[in-house]
Design goal:
Elements: E1 11-13, H1 21-26, E2 31-34, H2 50-62, E3 64-68, H3 73-79, E4 87-88, H4 97-106, E5 113-117, H5 120-129, E6 133-137, H6 147-166, H7 168-174, H8 176-180
Parallel strand pairs: 1-6, 2-3, 2-5, 3-4, 5-6
Helix pairs in contact: 6-7
The structure holds magnesium ion.
Magnesium ion binds at residues 35, 37-39, 117-119.
Length: 182
């Protein structure tokens, strides 16, 4: 499987509030791994809104929820201070180590997990190459992307073109809307 094939998400949704979690549960998913920056909150935001806290608390009743972030302990712990959710910081996505740790924390198999994130090159590629499915969401705020993310977005544009060319049906179904939304 080439890189671009591992960048195809299971689904795309406009935000974490739009994901059909009930359906995922019916499909055998019992754990949700979330990216933090630009998936839950923008890079320029420090804390979660009440709606985010409620959503993640509610999801915690039905799923093992783990946050996997490439950012620092300080930032993640501060953002999640109102929640009792385990998290991995400096996860180094798309490397496998963060996903591995999260699986250990949740005590589950890869097939039971859905990774949810806003970046093809870290969240989706990282999860898929390790055997975990991924849901892509619209970035909270594209303008607040950090430098490294801006670089990843350039790679992403190349990958998106490849998928559009070689797998037009999958592109249409799972990525076209993502491109249009940004
Ligand atoms: Mg992100």
């Amino acid at each position: 499987m080439s890189v671009y094939q591992k960048c195809i998400p299971h689904e795309y949704h406009a935000s974490i509030f739009e994901i059909p979690y009930k359906t995922l549960k019916e499909q055998g998913i019992n754990s949700l791994f979330f990216d933090l920056d630009n998936t839950i909150i923008g890079y320029d935001e420090i804390s979660l809104s009440k709606d985010h806290v409620k959503l993640l608390n509610d999801l915690g009743k039905d799923f093992n929820v783990v946050i996997i972030s490439n950012t620092s302990f300080k930032r993640v712990s501060l953002a999640l201070k109102d929640l009792k959710v385990p998290f991995i910081w400096h996860a180094k996505k798309p490397l496998k180590c963060g996903f591995k740790k999260a699986l250990k924390l949740a005590k589950v198999n890869k097939e039971e997990v859905m990774m949810i994130g806003d970046q093809l090159m870290t969240d989706i590629f990282g999860a898929t190459r390790y055997g975990i499915k991924g849901i892509l969401v619209k970035s909270v705020k594209r303008k607040s992307d950090r430098k490294i993310t801006q670089f990843n977005r350039k790679l992403e544009a190349i990958v998106l073109k490849k998928i559009e060319k070689n797998l037009p049906e999958l592109y249409e179904e799972r990525l076209k809307q993502y491109v249009q939304d940004h």
